[in-house]
């Protein structure tokens, strides 16, 4: 009883990757810290796009302190690729670039308008003031 | 004998390149690096499955985006394409801030150039005077001024109306 419980216990501690791949989750499983059993869809996405072997290899080549970020970015890319099988995360890059172009265009237009107003104001200020009315001094002497 | 050379993927995978090879249209033999990085990041079988699930006319775009992402991942093994997206989104935020500042500036300029309201030409009550009158409960003066400005108001009935106007 206790042995089966311990077996069940060890099985229940498998990470999402090892559960999905139906294998024993080793103590030093490289995927376990980043693909917990509580979020199986995260690993399924990554496995579908990159493959468990590729992900494990990529994480192993990185220092431990950078692996969490790498796992997150791989998960994000896999998620976007599943949502958009043609463009994936590249679609987000394209969209964001378009947004940048549109905003730059808008900004340039408004800055041009501001420059126009300022030029007009500068021109108006440079106009000489109307001459004061001349006082004619009548020379009555002589 | 007179067969075409194998595509870059079949060369790398060391297999016979059939005429319906799914990779051949997109990974020509003269650019082996392109397939090499896609294979390294995604794996040939995953790429093959992804392409098979797409209509033929969309496969070229899919390959281009996969190559782009694979390149990004090779350049930045930690953040890959997500790093580029973060950088671009920062640019968007900065530009939007600059745009907001410019829009506020032009709004100020436009407001400064608005013509004076013709109704208040005869009697102009400055904002300071108005708030002084309101604070000191001298609201009786206001409707009269308003009625002077707009002669259609009936001054006799003002006291009741004043309360509803100003409370």
Automatic annotation (TrEMBL), chain A:
Q: Which Pfam families does the annotation name?
A: LOB
Where does the chain cross the membrane? none
What range(s) does the LOB domain occupy? 13-114
Family membership = Belongs to the LOB domain-containing protein family.
What is the protein name for this chain? LOB domain-containing protein
Q: Which organism is it from?
A: Rhynchospora breviuscula
From TrEMBL, chain B:
Q: Which residues cross the membrane?
A: none
The record's section on InterPro entries has: LOB
- Where does the LOB domain lie? 5-106
The UniProt entry, under PROSITE patterns, shows: LOB
Q: Name one Pfam family in it.
A: LOB
Q: Which PANTHER family does the UniProt entry name for this protein?
A: LOB DOMAIN-CONTAINING PROTEIN 12, LOB DOMAIN-CONTAINING PROTEIN 4-RELATED
Protein family (similarity comment): Belongs to the LOB domain-containing protein family.
Q: What is this protein called?
A: LOB domain-containing protein
């Amino acid at each position: 009883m206790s042995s089966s419980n311990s077996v069940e216990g060890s099985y229940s501690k498998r990470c999402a990757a090892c559960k999905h791949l139906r294998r024993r989750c080793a103590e030093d499983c490289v995927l376990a810290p980043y693909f917990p059993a509580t979020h199986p869809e995260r690993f399924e996405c990554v496995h579908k796009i990159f493959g468990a072997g590729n992900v494990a290899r990529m994480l192993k080549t990185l220092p431990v302190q950078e692996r969490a970020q790498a796992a997150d970015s791989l998960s994000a890319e896999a998620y976007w690729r599943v949502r958009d099988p043609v463009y994936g995360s590249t679609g987000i890059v394209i969209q964001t670039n378009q947004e940048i172009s549109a905003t730059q265009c808008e900004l340039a237009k408004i800055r041009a308008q501001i420059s126009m107003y300022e030029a007009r104001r500068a021109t108006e200020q440079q106009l000489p003031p109307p001459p004061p009315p001349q006082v004619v001094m009548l020379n009555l002497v002589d | 004998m007179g067969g075409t050379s194998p595509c870059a993927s079949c060369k790398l995978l060391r297999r016979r390149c059939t005429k319906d090879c799914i990779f051949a249209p997109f990974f020509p033999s003269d650019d082996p690096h392109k397939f090499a990085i896609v294979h390294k990041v995604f794996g040939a079988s995953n790429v093959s499955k992804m392409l098979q699930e797409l209509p033929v006319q969309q496969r070229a775009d899919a390959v281009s985006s996969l190559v782009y992402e694979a390149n990004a991942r090779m350049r930045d093994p930690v953040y890959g394409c997500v790093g580029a997206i973060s950088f671009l989104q920062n640019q968007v935020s900065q530009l939007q801030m600059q745009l907001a500042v410019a829009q506020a500036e032009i709004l100020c300029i436009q407001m400064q150039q608005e013509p004076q309201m013709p109704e208040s030409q005869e009697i102009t009550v400055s904002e300071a005077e108005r708030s002084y009158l309101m604070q000191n409960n001298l609201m009786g003066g206001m409707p009269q001024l308003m009625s002077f400005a707009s002669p259609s108001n009936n001054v006799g009935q003002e006291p009741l109306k004043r309360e509803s106007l100003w409370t």
